[in-house]
């Protein structure tokens, strides 16, 4: 049920700067409760001090000011995700390989991810790679692309936070493109080597 379905008026406040200012506006408008993401720490405290009933959805709030903090339990989700990636690898006919967990801070999910892979798909291994703090997207893409190119046994990738998803996608594409260029150069070199060998054989035959 929404508050409107229950017969209560509801209002949406869009934050364009200081979230605390929106709290004061809500108080002035006569609101008695607010839903505020846990990341807006000061706004949550301001609402609590103003006597509002405060609910923090989606994000964890580290404090006592929120009356309710609704946060999903991601432990089962991580396990299902790990199993899904590993299952896709088996469908591709892979009998070994590594799965990379990538993000700004992989500590929060790597342990559960690694445990799930070890339990259900022990033929695969997991490894983590943290994006360095302060590194821009372009630098992060280049760094991860090089890592993937130099670790070709990585056959699965999980980006564990929202900002790392586009970086991982672009890095993977860049690594694939670089690998194809290397592969093409190797094939061209091999073809040229065979051609020279044939030419040498023909030259020896003609000399005989």
General description of the model:
The chain is of the alpha/beta class and 208 residues long. 52% of the residues lie in helices and 15% in strands. It contains six helices and six strands; from the N terminus they run αβαββαβαβαβα. Strands 1-2-3 form a three-stranded parallel sheet, with helices on one face. The protein has a three-stranded parallel sheet with strand order 5-4-6. Strand 1, helix 2 and strand 2 (53-57) form a beta-alpha-beta unit. Helix 5 (137-150) crosses helix 6 (164-207). The longest helix has 44 residues, at 164-207. The protein is elongated. The model has no long low-confidence stretch (mean pLDDT 87).
What labels would you give this structure?
single chain; 208 residues; alpha/beta; 3-stranded parallel β-sheet; 6 strands
Strand order of the biggest β-sheet? 1-2-3
Report mean pLDDT, rounded to a whole number: 87
How is the main sheet built? Answer: 3 strands, parallel
Category from helices, strands and their pairing: alpha/beta
Q: What general outline do the C-alpha atoms trace?
A: elongated
**Straight-line distance between termini:** 94 Å
Q: Which residue ranges are poorly predicted, with pLDDT under 50 across at least 5 consecutive positions? A: none
Radius of gyration: 27 Å
Beta strand count = 6
Order of helices and strands: HEHEEHEHEHEH
Strand content: 5-15%
Q: What percent of residues adopt helix (DSSP H or I)?
A: 40-55%
């Amino acid at each position: 049920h929404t508050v409107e379905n229950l017969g209560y008026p509801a209002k949406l406040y869009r934050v364009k700067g200081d979230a605390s200012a929106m709290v004061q506006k809500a108080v002035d408008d006569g609101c008695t409760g607010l839903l505020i993401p846990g990341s807006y720490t000061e706004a949550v405290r301001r609402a609590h001090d103003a006597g509002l009933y405060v609910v923090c959805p989606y994000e964890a709030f580290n404090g006592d000011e929120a009356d309710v903090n609704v946060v999903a339990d991601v432990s089962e989700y991580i396990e299902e995700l790990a199993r899904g990636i590993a299952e896709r690898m088996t469908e591709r006919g892979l009998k070994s390989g590594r799965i990379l967990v990538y993000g700004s801070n992989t500590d929060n999910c790597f342990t559960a991810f690694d445990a799930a892979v070890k339990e259900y798909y022990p033929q695969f291994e997991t490894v983590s790679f943290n994006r360095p703090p302060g590194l821009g997207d372009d630098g992060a893409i280049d760094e991860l692309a090089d890592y993937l190119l130099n670790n070709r046994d990585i056959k699965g990738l999980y980006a564990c936070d929202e900002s790392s998803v586009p970086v991982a996608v672009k890095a993977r594409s860049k690594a694939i493109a670089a690998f194809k260029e290397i592969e093409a150069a190797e094939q061209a070199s091999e073809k040229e080597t065979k051609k020279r060998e044939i030419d040498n054989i023909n030259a020896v035959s003609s000399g005989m």
